[in-house]
Design a protein that fits this description.
Shape: globular
Number of helices: 7
Strand order of the largest sheet: 3-4-5
Structural class: alpha+beta
Number of strands: 5
Amino acid sequence: HVVLPQGPTVREAEEFFAKQLSVANNVIHISISSKIEHSGYGPALEASKSFDNVFVIDSGHLSSSQGLMAIVAAKMAEEGLSAEQIVKELEAYKKKIHTSFIVDNLDFLSRAGQVGNGTANIVKSLMGRPVLKLRKGKMGVGITYFGAREQAWKAYISSTLSNASAIDTSILFVTYVGLSKRDT
């Protein structure tokens, strides 16, 4: 089975922006990292050129971090900041965001052509639990934990939260996919 990710077209983005502008004066579109294949950033940026009041930001991250930025942008809008000020603040804010996640295997990334089959099979055969990180907008494999799933999760969480003084606890997303109720 092959996964074929597909982003929006320029026309779809233009139609989306036009619809949003029917109820708003400005649109700030926060895209997932432009360095992730099919992110939608390119078509959105191109579509924004058809409007004077559409701003497109490359978050440099994936959806959870994109969500964090949207929450921060909404707070700034409520405070009365202009669209230009919000964009400027978000460009600085995105550098403070950390995106990583631990996975049981690399099968999905292998099917999407982002990781070779050989790498995915080696990691799986060694019972590796790789951590995927975004660095400078690109996804890569970080450390790999070995052993039982729960043990790997605990080690990952402990490592991720080890520098608690550097963590902004006012907003935190913890995303999980494919876990049973017992595991959450």
